[in-house]
Write a structure and sequence with these properties.
This protein is α+β, with helices and mostly antiparallel strands. Helices cover 33% and strands 22% of the residues. It has one domain: first zn-finger domain of poly(adp-ribose) polymerase-1. The longest helix has 14 residues.
């Protein structure tokens, strides 16, 4: 995975570009990773890692939930960056 400073820059950039939401999730789940790519570092969150799924109710008329999978470390950085700048 990235070094902490580089990962913080990636996280900040994804927040600024809108690739990651900057608001508090509607639901947060923690457990073994599903193998999905992380919303921050884009590497798979594997079953032998603890991961987070963050869910957001859509705004507007789009059905379904927006879901993002994150490594535990990426989740922490996302929380830090989103609350620091937004």
């Amino acid at each position: 995975m990235f070094e902490n400073a580089a990962l913080r820059r990636v996280t900040r950039g994804r927040l600024q570009s809108g690739a990651l939401p900057s608001r508090e999730p509607d639901h947060t789940w923690e457990g073994p990773g599903p193998g999905a790519d992380c919303g921050v570092c884009e590497k798979p969150v594997t079953g032998d890692e603890i991961g987070f799924e963050i869910q957001f109710a859509p705004s507007g008329n789009m059905p379904g939930l927006d879901r993002y999978h994150l490594h535990a470390a990426c989740f922490v950085l996302w929380e830090l960056e989103r609350t620091k700048f937004y």
